[in-house]
Specification:
The protein is α+β, with helices and mostly antiparallel strands. Strands 15-18-14-19 form a four-stranded parallel sheet. Strands 20-25-24-23 form a four-stranded antiparallel sheet. Helix 5 (123-136) crosses helix 8 and helix 21 packs across helix 23 (648-654). The longest helix has 21 residues, at 7-27. It is globular and about 115 Å long. It starts with 6 loop residues before the first helix and ends with a helix.
């Protein structure tokens, strides 16, 4: 712009440039970009460089609109005073984790409650619009909370609105608004084609069936799970341990009000006949029809087995990347923000797979794994949660350390961030088996992608958890029905646990892969790291997901080369997608971690003690009864301490209280030990039933077990 302005015009220009400069300084823009001619440069006009710029090679070019988010702002929305970056953070140019075009809303000056601001009716609407834009851009909830509660934004509309929520914890308030915004984004994408149902008395049996059909036709998220109708939603949850909140995807049971809202908003327009006006008028969903639909139990709605928050792989190697329900896997893909996957070759080479593996391995550089096998288990965990749609069941992952602060929880948070875009919210542990069963049942119905038992203090032993891992289903009690058990599908969940110097016990041992971390220092929490792996994942999450897919596709493209791996009963599809590709790339077999767990299992240790005592004192292949075994265990002799057991190993192996051995207790132990094999001094033994006699007593014996012979397939024998 050339020419002179009047004093009045110049005053307005100075005002505009001062406000523009304040924004410029906050965002770290280059000096001089506040001048008025830049603001007035309209799309379609020509940008004419001055003589100096023309000399350097600049040429006239049209002004182009690069982006427009639909927002409009009044001049008064922006602070007039020039502001410099705060002294405590002189290098800050952007709001961490939030794109600049979205973060600009945080800088809109406060004008008080109930006043339009930033093109919105008020501060509350501005705040909610900001959250929706931020979530759509891929910003995570932790970054949003940090920004919204940052005192550097004092005096700005969003910050002051949050602080004015009296009687409410600010972080909780922001978290719940993030939850509402995340659910609204998906709700706005629903089908708006509704059918009309005219309600007449005596036709409830037809009305509820018509409602059910309308829900399916409108593709409403109404699924069957654990004997109930459920909806996948985002929920803001806080963990009991550190009181930190996170947004998690879970299934929420439909009740009368929730289902009525879904039906009315997305599927059906209900009408009733007004006799006076002689016309059909709109009405709310009839409660009796909705209640009937909720309680029928014989729904035609699809069954859902779990939720994934990132693209995953199907059993045939194809990728699930379209949000919503996938009939092939019965999973609901609920994306955690915008996600862009880089190109993934259909047939990657082994070199591609090794490069992808290095990308994942570099994330683990700061974790103090004891041995290579421990890192292999961690990498298997990463592949498992990303590839969850490719297999129905997966092992439990158990991370152990001798000291707190070694990084067990942080490692699981990292794995969860790759798979879900957010850290996992732990399920609090308990030493009460009944309470643990209730928590596991509730977690099964919720169907979160990751089940995380954090900082356990007792050995991990749970028949229900073992069933969840092995069978992929557990029996749960439907809401309000304590006398009924219904199978609940858990095949979309991956289980994690951690603790300090504890053990996996019983049936869980063979279903659990264990990784040991040890910083070899008294205060491991004081260690420093060269980088934050979670920040790296958040910055380019698509690349890490693509790395997982590349590894598996390369193994398939190579013809799934056979690996020297022992059988892992029940987990063959998981082995094909996770275990074998890692071994193909030169990593230790993650399943071999179960061998040490077996040695540490107290139940298996007790079995070894008992069978060892049987061999020593009853002999091999020699029949004996429970009564004879009890009598021998209770024999005593005189010693320096007085009367002591004559056969201490046998007494200790069979005694429950250290004072006595009973026939009933010995019979119970022998029955539990039948046909269980254990190794002693390089040989394998087991207890078998020698004779069955109902009139007198059963007899037992210990026998040697021959090593199984390797069966060579005919086609290989002929080669």
């Amino acid at each position: 712009m050339n020419g002179k302005f009047s004093d009045e015009d110049q005053s307005k220009i100075d005002d505009v440039e001062a406000r523009t400069k304040a924004i410029m300084l906050r965002l770290g823009a280059p000096a001089g970009t506040q001048n008025i001619d830049r603001i007035l440069r309209l799309p379609g006009t020509t940008n004419l460089p001055n003589a100096k710029k023309r000399k350097s090679g600049r040429v006239p070019c049209p002004a182009v609109l690069l982006e427009f988010n639909g927002g409009t702002h009044a001049l008064e929305d922006f602070p007039k005073a020039e502001e410099k970056p705060r002294a405590e953070d002189p290098k800050a140019k952007h709001v961490k984790g939030i794109p600049n075009n979205v973060a600009r809303a945080l800088y809109i000056a406060d004008r008080g409650a109930g006043v339009s601001v930033g093109g919105y009716a008020g501060r509350s609407e501005l705040f909610f619009g900001f959250l929706i834009d931020a979530l759509r851009s891929g910003a995570d909830d932790e970054a949003l909370i940090e920004a919204c509660l940052n005192p550097k934004f004092a005096g700005m509309a969003i910050y002051e609105h949050i602080q004015d929520q009296k009687g409410d914890d600010a972080e909780n308030y922001v978290g719940r608004q993030i939850e509402h915004a995340a659910n609204k984004i998906e709700d706005d994408q629903g089908n708006l084609i509704k059918i009309t149902i005219r309600v007449r008395p005596g036709f409830r049996h037809e009305i509820w069936r018509a409602v059910a059909r309308a829900l399916r036709q409108a593709n409403c998220p109404v699924f069957v799970r654990g004997g109930a109708l459920v909806e996948p939603l985002w929920r803001w949850e806080k963990s009991e341990g550190d009181n930190r909140g996170a947004l998690v995807a879970k299934f929420v049971r439909y009740d009368l009000w929730r289902l009525s809202d879904m039906v009315a908003r997305h599927a059906v327009i209900f009408q009733r006949r007004d006799k006076k006006e002689k016309k059909w008028l709109p009405m709310d969903p009839p409660k009796d029809a909705i209640q009937t639909l909720l309680h029928r139990g014989d729904w035609d709605n699809p069954t859902v087995r779990g939720i994934v928050n990132a693209p995953t792989m199907r059993p045939d190697g194809s990728l699930l990347f379209v949000p919503g329900y996938d009939p092939a896997t019965e999973l609901w893909y609920k994306p955690a923000g915008d996600l862009e996957l880089p190109p993934i070759p259909e047939r990657p080479t082994k070199a591609d797979a090794k490069a992808a593996l290095k990308l994942l391995t570099d994330l683990l550089a700061g974790f103090p794994f004891e041995e290579d096998i421990d890192k292999s288990v961690a990498l298997a965990a990463i592949l498992t949660v990303v590839l969850r749609g490719a297999f129905e069941i997966a092992p439990l992952f158990f991370f152990l350390a001798p000291e707190a602060g070694t990084g067990k929880t942080f490692l699981i948070f990292l794995i969860a961030t790759i798979a879900t875009g957010r850290r996992a919210v732990p399920l609090p542990g308990t030493d009460d088996p009944k309470e643990m069963e209730k928590r596991l049942q509730a977690a099964a119905i919720e169907g979160k992608p990751i089940l995380f038992l954090n900082n356990l203090v007792d050995d991990l032993e749970s028949g229900l958890l073992s069933q969840m891992v092995t069978d992929g289903t557990i029996d749960v009690r439907p809401y309000g029905k304590n006398d009924v058990l219904i199978p609940c599908d858990c095949r979309g969940m991956t289980a994690f646990a951690n603790g300090n110097n504890i053990r996996v016990v019983g049936d869980l041992v063979r279903r659990t892969l264990t990784s040991h971390l040890n910083a070899n220092m008294e205060e491991p929490e004081t260690r420093t790291f060269d980088f934050d792996p979670i920040d790296k994942v958040k910055a380019n999450r698509g690349a890490y997901l693509a790395a997982v897919f590349t590894i598996v596709r390369a193994y398939m493209a190579a013809g799934c080369p056979k690996q020297d791996a022992e059988a892992f009963a029940g987990f063959d599809p998981w082995s094909r997608m996770v275990r074998l590709p890692l071994m193909w790339l030169g990593l230790k077999d993650p399943v071999s971690s179960t061998k040490e767990a077996r040695l540490l299992d107290p139940q298996r240790g007790d079995l070894r003690e008992r069978i060892g005592a049987y061999v020593k004192h009853m002999g091999v292949r020699q029949p004996f009864t429970a009564a004879a075994l009890t009598k021998k265990a209770m024999e005593t002799t005189s010693g320096a301490r007085g009367i002591v057991p004559a056969y201490p190993e046998l007494f200790e192996a069979l005694s429950r209280d250290g004072r006595s051995v009973t026939v009933k207790g010995v019979t119970r132990k022998l029955t539990a030990d039948l046909k269980r094999i254990c190794s002693l001094d390089g040989k394998q033994y087991r207890v078998v039933l020698a004779t069955r006699d109902r009139k007198t007593a059963n007899t037992y014996r210990v026998e040697l077990v021959k090593a199984p012979q390797t069966v060579v397939p005919p086609e290989e024998a002929a080669m």
